[in-house]
Amino acid sequence: MTTLIIIVSAFAANLPLGWWRAGYEKFTLPWWLLVHASVPLIIGLRIWLETPLIWSPTIILAAVLGQLAGKRCATKHRKPTRK
To answer: Half-sphere exposure of residue 52, counting CA atoms within 13 Å on the CB side?
Structure first.
């Protein structure tokens, strides 16, 4: 159950970050910050809930999918304005 909480949290935390990231040019400083902003939250949750390391690839996958879903929503609803 705790693993599911972390997976859902990783996905949910990265949805708005992916949305914001869509407005920036790739590999700029804001883009990198938005890609990595959820990492401390995810690591903190993983340690606090004592989730085994074997679940790390699944948690990372959920975070990446959250970024991609947020970006997809952003590109469907608005055009990027910041570069």
So the answer is: 3
Helix axes 2-21, 39-48, angle to 10 degrees: 170
Q: String of b and e for 7-42 (b: at least 16 CB within 10 Å)?
A: bebbbebbbbbbbbbbbbeeeeeebeebbeebeeeb
Are residues 35 and 19 in contact, defined by beta-carbon separation less than 8 angstroms? no
Half-sphere exposure of 36 (CA within 13 A, CB side): 7
Question: pLDDT digits over 42-66, tens only?
Answer: 999 999 999 999 999 999 999 999 9
